[in-house]
Design goal:
The complex is a heterodimer of chains A (130) and B (176). Chain A contains three helices and five strands. By secondary structure, chain A is of the alpha+beta class. Chain A has a single domain, classed as Dynein light chain 2a, cytoplasmic (Beta-Lactamase, 2-Layer Sandwich), CATH 3.30.450. In chain A, 36% of the residues are buried. Chain B has 176 residues and is α/β, with parallel strands linked by helices. Chain B has five helices and eight strands; from the N terminus they run βαββββαβαβαβα. Chain B has helices at 16-23, 73-80, 95-107, 132-141, 156-174, and strands at 2-10, 32-34, 43-45, 49-54, 59-65, 83-91, 116-121, 148-150. Classes of the chains: A alpha+beta (130), B alpha/beta (176). Chain A: It comes from Marinicella sediminis.
């Protein structure tokens, strides 16, 4: 089944982390693979495009201006945090976007997002899906 | 120091990234990633290209290239603020690229007094009727008279022609 393993990993993270508002996985060029949202609001394509742009800009800033490698992009707001991470999904470059409520401190949000990105990158490539 | 912004807009694969690379005096910043769909090339811009031309000690031109896909239009909004000039690139004989012209003219609110020119790219590679006639029709409907050039984004001379034309357009608009 398409994206079943991905859905399982996201569900597991949502249960462990709590206060997760949205988790979105997209291709590096901004096409949605899968999106999870607790509020039922669906702006997946917009979120995928924004995630892709922000990650590429962060990547450009770190690699081309700081001569180092991007780890994550963290956006803090009054209503929560957004963590963006580069990952791989079924052998292709991808971007994970993790949005949590203000109850989850930024360090924890980053921890769960990183753990999820690492788990997603281990999902083997499957020619029949993606 | 005065910083003027030039936006490079146009459909996917029209040559924005290449042109900025050739125009810039400095190493450009680019945000290309591997495309996951067939767009006729491997890489696509998803963030923004940035380069600079330093005219003299007091004037610097910032070259901003935006992604061609409409889903990234939030990046267009960012670049749109405080623009000095706009360069619209059209891929020769591409229906999609010509159709996009109307949308871009509206989105970037191009008026006759906006320093703006249109560059037709890939004329050397794609044979057949040039897009110039279609572009002129679109401009005529809007009472716009803009310079239209066939350019090769890989040639530095073509990039310089664009820059010199924009300066000339501004001087004409200012009556200087």
């Amino acid at each position: 089944m398409e994206h079943e393993e991905l859905k399982f990993l996201i569900g597991k993270t949502v249960r462990q982390a709590e206060y997760v508002n949205k988790i979105n996985l997209s291709s590096a060029d901004g096409f949605t693979y899968h999106s999870f949202s607790t509020d039922g609001q669906s702006e997946d394509d917009k979120l995928s495009a924004v995630s892709s742009s922000l990650t590429s800009l962060s990547n450009a800033a770190t690699s081309q201006l700081m001569n180092t490698e991007l780890i994550s992009t963290v956006i803090e707001s009054a209503d929560g945090n957004m963590v963006l991470l580069k990952t791989r999904y079924r052998g292709k470059d991808a971007v994970l976007c993790f949005i949590s409520g203000p109850q989850l401190i930024v360090g924890k949000a980053r921890y769960y997002a990183k753990k999820l990105a690492e788990a997603i990158s281990t999902i083997p490539a499957d020619q029949s899906a993606v | 120091m005065i910083h003027k912004k030039i936006a490079f807009i146009g459909s996917v694969g029209s040559g924005k990234t290449t042109l900025i690379k050739n125009l810039s005096n400095t190493e450009t910043i680019n945000t290309d990633v591997k495309s996951s769909i067939d767009i006729g090339k491997d890489l696509t811009t998803v963030g923004m290209d940035y380069g600079e031309i330093r005219i003299d000690e007091d004037l610097k031109l910032g070259l901003y290239g935006v992604p061609g896909q409409r889903k990234f239009s939030f990046m267009w909004d960012f670049v749109k603020q405080g623009l000095w000039a706009v360069v619209i690139l059209i891929k020769n004989n591409s229906t999609e690229s010509i159709k996009e012209l109307e949308y871009l003219l509206d989105y970037f609110a191009i008026k006759q007094d906006t320093p703006c020119l249109i560059g037709i790219t890939h004329s050397d590679l794609i044979k057949g009727e040039t897009s110039k006639k279609h572009i002129k029709n679109i401009l005529n409907k809007r009472n716009l008279v803009l310079p239209i050039y066939s350019i090769n984004a890989n040639l530095k001379e073509n990039a310089e022609l664009i820059f010199r034309t924009l300066i000339l357009l501004e001087e004409t608009n200012n009556g200087t």
